Amino acid sequence: xxxxxxxxxxxxxxxxTNPLEVVKTRMQLQGELKSRGTYQVYYRNVFHAFYTIGxxxxxxxxQKGLVPGLFYQFFMNGVRLGSYAIIESADYIHTNGRxxxxxxxIAGAAAGVVGxxxxxxxxxxxxxxxxxxxxxxxxxHQYKHQGMIHALRIIYRQHGILGLWRGSSAAIPRVSVxxxxxxxxxxxSKELIIDLQVFPQDSWLVALSAGMMSSVVVVLAMTPFDVVxxxxxxxxxxxxxxxxxxxxxxxxxxxxxxxxxxTGLYKGLGASYFRLGPHTILSLFFWDELRKLHQKLR
Length: 298
Prior knowledge:
It contains nine helices and two strands. The chain is mainly alpha-helical.
């Protein structure tokens, strides 16, 4: 049940934040491996990107990749949040009755690694679908998938089972860093808010406030890994499934830093917060409330 509750909470958040995931993906691919001023800017900021995509690709364009996005959230966050809930229930994250920062970071990272490996194939497809656009505003490599099943079938047929895990070298550090940051700050923030008695201990405002505090730290820590992950997943590959732009996580990170500077690794930061911020807040809030409801019904 811990795994199901984690997955359902993340899917509920995904319904609200998927359009921002589309915006974030496009902004992270814009000007890939090009110096500032040498490429056409289709998306000036998160609001302009939202308007442009809606105008050119239609409202449906803002929900591209929703189906694989929901599958990804259910499997990845179901495993990640479910694993963490089990670890938390076993009282591993506490030392002398208090939340241990070190233990929550280790537990969050470990849960993130498992979730990243499980969800990598659908994240690959989600990235491909969200980057697909009308040629007039297209950025990054353009795959021609007709949907999630079609994409999975094509990738498997061309590159075998391992091809479905292409890009996972970036997904593992991305999710482990994000998970460690998110769950450690959420647990610590909840404890702090309860200690300060800002709200009653069982109030839904405790989880909501802790999620807000966690979201800021998550976005700052996770965005560079998110940019690298998006680019590795979306890069064109040869007939052997080998990437034509990057050899792996380290190569992508160094090339982006060299060509685009530190700001290249933080491309789409505004979009990242508008997406990751609400998603972090909503998924943690839904997760916490669903767990409390389940405990009451047991």
